[in-house]
Amino acid sequence: MTPAEIIITGGLVVFPTETVYGLGANALMDSAVEKIFEAKGRPKTSPLIVHVATIQEARELSRWSAAAEALAQRFWPGPLTLVVPKSPLLISDLVTAGFDSVGLRIPAHPIALKLLRESGVPIAAPSANRFTELSPTTAEHVRESFGDQFPILDGGPCKVGIESTVFHVESLTILRPGMVTRAQIEEVVGPAQGDTGFSLSPGQHPRHYQPRTPVTLTNTPGPRDAYLWRTQEASAARVLRMPENAANYAAVLYSTLHDLDKESFRRIAIEPPPLDSEWDGIRDRLIRATAT
What we know:
The chain is of the alpha/beta class. It has two domains: 3-189, DHBP synthase; 215-290, no CATH class. It has ten helices and twelve strands. The strands form two sheets. It has an eight-stranded mixed beta sheet with strand order 1-2-6-3-5-4-7-8, with helices on both faces. β7 (165-168) and β8 (173-176) form a beta hairpin. It starts with a helix and ends with a helix.
């Protein structure tokens, strides 16, 4: 069967997006969505993002608003997920963890868009890795988690490199920061607030995005550490300079951690990122990666 036929008939397919690789299933078929939770070991209290091919499809799956329309027109296709009231006749509680809202986005990757168009259904897709582990930005990263358990559409390295920004449209709240920044969102809809403890978004578990090697944020690495730095060198077993630009840093963060995880370092020490808002998504991922 083709990848689209696998999706239509209830199977799982791994596909690339501009953010990370996703483990996709037909969002309209509960038995298919169930397989995502089983494969990842993901709790059903964590909602899934639903990927669509067009804004019109997003309108049909939700109670759409003028603010959602303005944001979609500005940022889609792209790394922004909009949480909007769902259409309960189409989107089940299994996809949304029982909430009456759904996270929707159009991915900016030709392979993802082709799969969406050819299947003709919305695709629920979290990152293609085990729950709380490091997200995949290449097909090889997926194989390290799942082997050949699912068909993998190889689209090369993901360009954005971390998961999408998640924005709750009705409350104007950023539930999960990403590379679409608060400032960019506020240009469209006015003042927005940071996460206030909502659990409506994936990626909210305190421990998340974690390699097997312990990670710490510090300016003083030890001699058996791998050290990721931007502004100052230090003495460590391996010292890697990371990009000073936030977008470039995000693009290589997970791939760098995947590579270091294959070696026998005591820990991965990372220079804390700047407090500037454009680094919010990166800082969120690093804080969760260091949680114990």
